[in-house]
Amino acid sequence: LDLLDTDWGWDVKTPEQFMVRDWVRVNGQRVLWETCQTFSGSWGYHRDESTWKSVGQLTRMLIDTVSKGGNLLLNVGPTARGEFDARALDRLQGMGEWMRRHGRSVYGCTQAPEGYTTPQDCRLTYNPETNRLYVHVFAWPIRHLHLDGLAGKVAYAQLLNDASEITCGAGSWYVQQMGGKPADTLLTLNLPSQKPNVAVPVIELFLDN
Known about the structure:
By secondary structure, this protein is α+β, with helices and mostly antiparallel strands. It has helices at residues 55-66, 86-102, 172-178, and strands spanning 25-26, 29-30, 34-38, 71-75, 110-111, 122-127, 132-137, 144-148, 154-159, 167-170, 186-190, 202-207. The strands form four sheets. The chain has a five-stranded antiparallel beta sheet, covered by helices on one side.
């Protein structure tokens, strides 16, 4: 957007109430940014406002923002009694429960380094200090998730919600049957048939140095 590619002299760029497509840039250079969002369609408490985002939507917004190098600022307004109403508490509790198990895929993380291809219906975040890549799966696939360019680069994979191991294999059968990247670069994750009972499942990849 032209608005985001203009240098207004701010330390942090703050797109409000919309999600950007990529890391915010000014004059072609990446800048610090955060998106300002509301739980509903109102910045303050509004008794009759009914467009509240679900826990899943809010969690996906958080992940999408971090995957593009940004920070998510969520606004919630208290009632006139200085309390959060049941709708706000429900969303806060739901996001907190997700963060309790998956927080390390967000804290300290940013956009994945160049060269990493994001699978369909997923988002990638990366922690440069631990050298771990996180695959946030927005739509749970059937049995397999294919990652281009990661064969031989992952020492271990696990689901964050329960720390259960995800086995990996080369994607030779997939390449032979469906075409695509060379078999020696495609990594296939063997997933459980049922989606984990969390808002957004996350697979933690321990990358080889």
